[in-house]
Amino acid sequence: MKAVLLAFTLLAAMIIASLLTGVSPVSVGALLRGDFEGNTAVVIAASRIPRTLALLLAGAGLAVSGSIMQMLARNRFVEPSTAGTADSASLGMLLVMLLAPGLPVFAKMLVAAAFALGGTALFLAVLERIPLRSALLVPLVGIMLGGVISAVATFLAYRYDLMQSLGAWSNGDFSMVLSGRYELLWIAAGLTIVAYFTAARFTIAGLGEAVARNVGLDYRAVVTLGLVIVSLVTASVVVTVGMIPFLGLVIPNVVSLMAGDNLRRTLPWVAFSGAALVMFCDLLGRLIIFPYEIPIGLTMGVIGSAFFLYLLLGRRAYAA
Fold it and tell me: Which residues neighbour 92 within 8 Å (Cβ) at sequence distance 6 or greater?
């Protein structure tokens, strides 16, 4: 109980720090009283609150997506940025910009989600056809597939002068989040709730197709539902703030080490921890070279890649 209270206290402290941190000064007293004057009220309503909500929603959604992907692929090194999912969503967004730039943002996200779904399904199909003797080969296959998709997207972006747009989708950054430009992330919140109520099915599916069918589970339907959740969450995050690497890898593994693999029990902690880590990395990026900012894609990339190497080199038995 003390650990839960401490965790919620830390997250609440980071939420307050997120509301206070920025070029425009906001005092703690004014924030607690809700007593704002002049531009301060505009800054809080139009920038700080949307950014904080976006951090919570994106962090929780991507962490849960990572857990689902690891269950479906039965490998702890898999997550949207190591399975080609995020790269496929970026390619989808790029093609929308080339072929139908006038589409509404929601339609663009659906196209990106369709590409993310296709990329993830391709990744799982490749895994079924390759004799994998080591768990380490699975993320290698995903990274190679993502590299091919990313190369195609980079070529098209270079050819049609869209490198800046591609860079925005490839590198997570919350500095441009404003009211009216983050609401797609509520989709991630809704899908996280859906994932919680179907978590038991994902846990059984993670034991393998044969076991799932023996207990009467429609394995293909569960896999399809998981792919849809992962694709929509990834697309909504990529369209809104860009790719946040390794989040879906770090959080599910940490929670699994501490609480086991029963998703029904651990998924709330996965969502909570994902939101907290994204909040921490964003605050770190906003404070290191204040008043300028380091994109969260960079801070999360450093932390995530270090944890990835730790799993590869230090905990192979656990990962297998």
Answer: 111, 112, 113, 114, 115, 116, 235
C-alpha span between 276 and 243 (Å, rounded): 17
Strand residues in the chain grouped as ranges (E): none
User: What b/e sequence results for 232-262 when a residue is b if at least 16 CB atoms lie within 10 Å of its CB, and e otherwise?
Assistant: bbbbbbbbbbbbbbbbbbbbbbbbbeeeebe
Distance between CA atoms of residues 22 and 13, nearest Å:
16
pLDDT tens-digit map of 114-153: 898 888 888 888 888 877 666 677 778 888 888 999 999 9
Q: What residue type is assigned to position 8 of the chain?
A: F
Burial class of residue 37 in the structure, from the number of CB atoms within 10 Å of its CB (0-12 exposed, 13-18 middle, 19+ buried): exposed
Residue 182 CB contacts under 8 Å (≥ 6 apart), including other chains: 50, 51, 53, 54, 57, 240, 241
Chain-centre distance for alpha carbon 38:
36
Burial degree of 167 (CB within 10 A; 0-12, 13-18, 19+): middle
Q: Which amino acid is at 319?
A: A
Cα(215)–Cα(6) distance, integer angstroms: 39
- pTM beyond 0.85: the answer is yes
DSSP element (H, E) containing 255 = helix 247-259
Q: What is the pLDDT of residues 67-116, one digit of tens each?
A: 998 888 888 888 888 888 888 888 998 999 899 888 888 888 889 888 98
- Other beta carbons within 10 angstroms of residue 189's beta carbon come to 17
Contacting residues for 41 by C-beta, under 8 A, at least 6 apart: none
CA distances from 126 to 65, 84, 119, 139, 186 (A): 20, 12, 11, 12, 32
